Amino acid sequence: MARPVTIRTVATRAGCSIATVSRVMNGTGPTSAEVEARVRAAVSELAFRPSEIGRALKSLRTRTLGVVIPSLTNPVFASSVAGIEAQARARGHVLLVTATDYDPAREREVVETLIAQSVAGLVLTVADPDDNPTLDHLDAGGIPYVLVYNEPKRAVRAAVTVDNEAAGATLTQALVALGHTRILFVAGRFATSDRSRLRHQGYRAAMQAAGLAPSPVLELDYLGDADAHRSALAGLLGAPGRPTALVCSNDLLALSITAAVRDMGLAVPGDVSIAGFDGISIGRLVSPALCTIDQPTRRMGERAVERLFDLMDGHGARAVEHLPFHLRPGGTIAVAPSPS
Amino acid sequence: MARPVTIRTVATRAGCSIATVSRVMNGTGPTSAEVEARVRAAVSELAFRPSEIGRALKSLRTRTLGVVIPSLTNPVFASSVAGIEAQARARGHVLLVTATDYDPAREREVVETLIAQSVAGLVLTVADPDDNPTLDHLDAGGIPYVLVYNEPKRAVRAAVTVDNEAAGATLTQALVALGHTRILFVAGRFATSDRSRLRHQGYRAAMQAAGLAPSPVLELDYLGDADAHRSALAGLLGAPGRPTALVCSNDLLALSITAAVRDMGLAVPGDVSIAGFDGISIGRLVSPALCTIDQPTRRMGERAVERLFDLMDGHGARAVEHLPFHLRPGGTIAVAPSPS
DNA sequence: CTGTTAGCGCATTCAA
DNA sequence: TTGAATGCGCTAACAG
């Protein structure tokens, strides 16, 4: 009932063999104009679309790309998927999208699932791009893939990202330039994000370069509710000599922290400056606008697909590609309050 | 190279026929404990996962669901997809995700693509669920599908949504209760959103019930930049007798409008109250929190998949299912300013 | 309990 | 230029 019209239906209708229909559809091999016209007419009348399954079984290769991301509800990933989708569609491919919920164990699970679907290639964002059995598995199987947002340091892997360490330094320097000396780095779980780790390294480097002491990092579940964030911050921001600036390892966290800080009765940026990472578009709409590191999220997804096709065609490089980032100024940071 | 290990490889290794391997894998038919053990050992050693393609070709039915949404970067859709994905995975299915960019013409295109992939069913959000040739096409082909966010009024179609008209009325009544009389409805393009249309109807009904005159709707591209929104609002909010409250047909629009209104030098909610629709989580984090209609976006996606499986199993109802919504209070609305 | 085989939709080789 | 035949990986009907 669903798709009863196959290549055989068309062949019968056009009065030719299925081989001829196939040739016309794919433009392979010679066909007479007359037969071709009959086939096209039949295809049109029957609204025939060749089954991708039959085609795939033959070639053992689908026109499908697998996408693995931590979460769809984080705009930064949704944005890259939007770019991936657009670019894949432009190349006649569709997307199998899976989410890991930041669980490394699930990475393996979904990748197995996608391999069973015979995807032509994968675009993924993983927790750890260096020490990662799932990626080793892909390497061993010769399955092409490109990482997005991940920045492998030791392993030789194709990736599209920004220089997160430099970005962390840039943001920290901006706060130092405003006179802040007690700057706290608030991070999502390091275990699930190499971005978070690298941005923190940049923060540390910039602090040291400025002759300042990096604070111990405040690592928390950035998906936690506001209550959790408030209690985590209470001790740190209630004490004397409290930080005057918070660098958050991603924008969602920064927005949540901003709300928590305000709930504690502190002003942003009057009492505390807050900056984020990622450049999600919502950050422009809030008031004051979120100061953050802008990265070309959509473009990163597009670029990953471009490189994935290169790999699939056998002429791609397995290297880390850095796209430019820039500091997006915003009202959530200000000159450090004078010591009281 | 990619997946050279087939059911035949396993059969050879286990010293049995491919039928036996299939039986063990699927638990169909009887097998002796001894042979089953050998097969399982071979499967494990070879890391065999049956190709979904072969399976699909046989049954003409994949374990794949097609998803069609206007955009991935709107959190309200991303959230429903997250629910769809979780529920689909729980049932051993994967998701082919496509975006239409709010272009009705593209609906047809992507649905054709998904049909060619032999999806088992579809979950979609379309521009117009009543007058829609693409959905007619699915009906004609007997392909099961469930709509999300759409609320078909005339056509008999399975859908999971909230009562958008009632929600529009609820929100409007809340503003009326605060003393507002000049309430403007700001809408995304009606042509691409029946939600927008229905919410507007609810607004009109509530205004009339309160003895107030509905203003002409301000319809604009909600993806437009802040400049576009600012100029669209300039005339309306600059004039005397200007609206004291804006009801925006979705949350992203509400956030953008809030920014635009502030840029014009007006205070929110001091001069102008603003409310949105959808209940995206970011709305809780901004300050003041966005007043909106909260709907169970993720749950709607999950529920759609549950109902889709019912349809696929032949015992589902093609009816509109309303999930509960509620008014989420927020600091963006306040008592109407006294007439100046 | 197990093996053989047909056939799903298509691309492709080999004949004609 | 076209058609017949094969086989991709798998499930299911049938034989044994």
- What is the succession of H and E elements of chain A? HHHHEHEHEHEEHEHEHEHEHEHEE
Largest sheet, strands/sense/barrel of chain A: 6 strands, parallel
Work out the strand percent of chain A.
5-15%
Radius of gyration of chain A: 26 Å
Instruction: Count the beta strands of chain A.
Output: 12
Query: What is the largest interface, and how many residues per chain?
Result: A-B, 54 and 55 residues
Structure description:
The structure is a homodimer of 340-residue chains. Chain A has 340 residues and is of the alpha/beta class. Chain A is 45% helix and 14% strand. Chain A has 13 helices and twelve strands. The first copy, chain A, has helices spanning 7-14, 18-26, 33-46, 52-59, 75-90, 104-116, 133-141, 164-177, 194-209, 226-238, 251-263, 282-285, 297-312, and strands at residues 64-69, 94-99, 121-124, 145-148, 159-161, 183-187, 218-219, 245-248, 273-275, 292-294, 320-322, 326-328. In chain A, the strands form three sheets. A six-stranded parallel beta sheet of chain A has the order 2-1-3-4-5-11, sandwiched between helices. A four-stranded parallel beta sheet of chain A has the order 7-6-8-9. Chain A is elongated and about 90 Å long. The relative contact order of chain A is 0.12. Chains A and B meet through helix 4, helix 5, strand 2, helix 6 and helix 11 of A and helix 4, helix 5, strand 2, helix 6 and helix 11 of B. The structure holds a DNA duplex (16 and 16 nucleotides).
